[in-house]
Design goal:
The protein has helices at residues 24-31, 55-71, 98-114, 129-146, 163-166, 170-173, 183-192, 234-256; strands at 37-41, 74-75, 119-124, 148-149, 152-153, 156-161. By secondary structure, the chain is an alpha/beta fold. The longest helix is centred in the last third of the chain and has 23 residues, at 234-256. The radius of gyration is 20 Å and the shape is globular. The structure holds zinc ion. Residues 47, 55-56, 180, 185 line the site of zinc ion.
Length: 257
């Protein structure tokens, strides 16, 4: 007869990258070490005919896992929904209301801090302006409500889109006007999940009205693309992903000081 303990072959907690792969006992131990937590946020959004709806989810999740591998930080379970404005009428896009995203992210951040994690990076793959505002306001409310003890700030949260770093390579690797589902995003997905690249993609650029709130934004970019996906390569994608990883590692180190 096999003893129960013979089947126990658990990996050392320090090797695990996802926070929720740890046990409650393991979490209680690492909380005391003041480690950084990365919370990846994605979206369910059209990305042209060539990329999957999860494009904005798999980019920050990949970066977060690599950063965790190299720094020892942990990755919180991702939240794969966001506010999708321009692409909302394309098949498959799912958008949250502003207050929904704000409340969900505020709850997750506030629960992480209640557990004792007070160094957090919110890393979004989607970079829409109202989406980013919801994330920033949620973080701000959490640090205002539970981020201070005896006049000292005890909780630090960074909020960014990984696209902030990816687009730094626009000049070198893409068109300066590259954007949604263009060269940069296509190249990154080619590096991360080449099996999800559906077609070569259709190059196009959209020009939305400057001030008008339109009912059918998709009429301004019927292909769902802003940029040229046909110039993307996996090699470019690897270069961009490595750049983003290096920059996020610097943020982890900044939070550890
Ligand atoms: Zn995207």
């Amino acid at each position: 007869m096999t003893n129960m303990t013979d089947n126990i072959n658990a990996v050392d907690a320090s090797q695990l990258l996802w926070l929720d792969e740890l046990s409650t006992i393991e979490v209680a131990k690492i909380v005391k070490q003041g480690i950084v937590i990365i919370l990846p946020i994605g979206s369910v959004e059209e990305h042209g005919e060539h990329l999957p709806l999860c494009t904005d989810s798999i980019q920050p999740e990949y970066v977060a896992l690599e950063v965790a591998r190299q720094t020892g930080c942990k990755v919180a379970p991702p939240f794969r929904y966001g506010i999708v404005n321009a692409g909302r009428n394309f098949s498959g896009s799912i958008t949250l209301q502003f207050n929904t995203l704000f409340n969900v992210v505020k709850d997750i951040l506030s629960e992480l801090t209640r557990n004792g994690f007070n160094r957090i990076i919110v890393l979004s793959g989607h970079a829409g302006s109202s989406h980013m505002v919801a994330l920033k306001l949620a973080a701000q409310q959490v640090i205002q409500q539970n981020g201070e003890k005896n006049g000292k700030q005890t909780t630090r949260i960074m909020v960014l889109s990984d696209y902030d770093f990816a687009e730094e390579l626009n000049k070198e690797l893409a068109d300066p006007n590259d954007g949604h589902a263009g060269t940069i995003e296509t190249a990154r997905v080619m590096d991360i999940r080449p099996d999800l690249i559906k077609t070569k993609g259709i190059p196009s650029h959209y020009k939305m009205p400057r001030f008008e709130i339109v009912l059918h934004p998709e009429h301004y970019f019927p292909s769902g693309v802003h940029g040229d996906p046909t110039t993307a390569t996996a090699k470019k994608g690897q270069k961009i992903n490595n750049h983003v990883i290096t920059q996020v590692i610097k943020l982890v180190q900044e939070l550890q000081t």
